C-alpha cells in the first residue's frame, strides 16, 4: 500500500506516524521543529486521512506500509517517531526491517497488548455523527458530546470531520467501520523477535496509563537499549499538551 505523505526539510530522514483517529498533521508542531535539521516525512496510516482504505489492518501490515514508503523514497535508513498506535507501528517496523530504522521515539505507548477496550464511547460518538449527517462542526460536536465528555477528545476527533455538504463518502477522514472491525488488532501486540538493538526513547505522559512501570520487562526484552522520559502533568496527548518540552526531548535524543 502506498501511503499519503508530506515531506519537508533536508538532512537525516525522520518519519512521523500518528495515532488512532489521527492524520499526518497531528505531529505538525514537532515537524516544524525538526524541519530545520531533518528530512521530515509525515504520513497518513492506512484507513486514515488521505491514505487508501482497506478492510485489513494489523501491525505487520501497517509496518509493511512504512517499509514500502521507505523503499519508495529510496531512503537508506530513517528515524521513526510514533504516537500511540503510531508508536506500535514504528516498533513493529523496527522488528520487521531493523536495517531500515535508525532508531525510535515512542510517545505514550508500550509494546504490550491492552486487554480492555478504551474507545467504546468514541466509536459510539463517531457512529452517531455518521447517522445524523451534521452540516457544521458545531453540530457534530453537539452529537459527539452526547457520548464523549472530554472536550479535548472531541476537538481532536473534529479535526477529521468533513461537513456533510463536502463529504463524498462519509463525514470522517478515517474509516470508522474498518477501525471498529480491526479494533482487537489495534489493541493487540504480536511482539517482535529478535529484539531491536538500536536506540529507543519512550516518552510517557505523567498522568497517562498507557506506559506503566510493570511493562518494563516487556519493553526491555524487545528493546534492550530503551530509555524513558516522563513529562509531568500530561495525559496521552503529551505532544499537544506540552509541545515545547516534548519537542526538546525528541531533538536531544535525535542529536
Automatic annotation (TrEMBL):
Q: Where is the AB hydrolase-1 domain?
A: 12-243
Q: Does the keyword Acetylation apply?
A: no
An example of a Pfam family matching this protein is Abhydrolase_1
Q: What InterPro entries does the annotation carry?
A: AB_hydrolase_1 (IPR000073), AB_hydrolase_fold (IPR029058), Epox_hydrolase-like (IPR000639)
Query: What UniProt keywords apply to this chain's record, in alphabetical order?
Result: Hydrolase
Q: Which GO terms describe its molecular function?
A: hydrolase activity
Coiled coil spans:
none
The protein's name is: Alpha/beta hydrolase
This protein's species is Oceanisphaera avium
Amino acid at each position: 500500500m502506498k501511503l499519503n505523505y508530506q515531506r519537508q526539510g533536508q538532512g537525516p530522514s525522520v518519519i512521523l506516524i500518528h495515532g488512532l483517529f489521527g492524520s499526518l498533521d497531528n505531529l505538525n508542531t514537532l515537524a516544524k521543529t525538526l524541519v530545520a535539521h531533518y528530512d521530515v516525512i509525515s504520513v497518513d496510516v492506512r484507513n486514515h486521512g488521505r491514505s487508501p482504505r482497506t478492510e485489513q489492518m494489523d501491525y505487520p501490515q501497517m509496518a509493511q506500509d512504512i517499509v514500502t514508503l521507505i523503499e519508495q523514497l529510496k531512503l537508506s535508513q530513517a528515524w521513526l517517531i510514533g504516537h500511540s498506535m503510531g508508536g506500535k507501528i514504528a516498533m513493529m517496523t523496527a522488528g520487521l526491517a531493523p536495517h531500515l530504522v535508525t532508531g525510535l521515539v515512542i510517545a505514550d505507548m508500550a509494546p504490550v497488548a491492552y486487554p480492555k477496550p478504551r474507545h467504546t464511547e468514541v466509536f459510539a460518538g463517531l457512529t452517531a455523527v455518521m447517522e445524523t449527517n451534521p452540516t457544521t462542526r458545531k453540530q457534530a460536536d453537539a452529537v459527539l458530546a452526547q457520548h464523549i465528555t472530554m472536550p479535548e477528545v472531541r476537538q481532536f476527533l473534529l479535526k477529521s470531520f468533513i461537513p456533510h455538504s463536502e463529504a463524498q463518502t462519509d463525514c470522517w477522514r478515517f474509516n470508522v467501520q474498518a477501525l471498529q472491525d480491526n479494533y482487537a488488532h489495534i489493541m493487540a501486540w504480536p511482539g517482535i523477535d529478535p529484539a531491536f538493538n538500536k536506540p529507543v526513547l519512550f516518552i510517557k505522559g505523567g498522568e497517562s496509563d498507557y506506559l506503566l512501570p510493570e511493562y518494563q520487562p516487556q519493553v526491555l526484552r524487545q528493546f534492550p537499549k530503551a530509555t524513558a522520559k516522563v513529562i509531568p502533568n500530561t495525559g496521552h496527548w503529551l505532544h499537544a499538551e506540552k509541545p515545547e518540552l516534548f519537542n526538546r526531548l525528541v531533538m536531544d535524543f535525535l542529536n
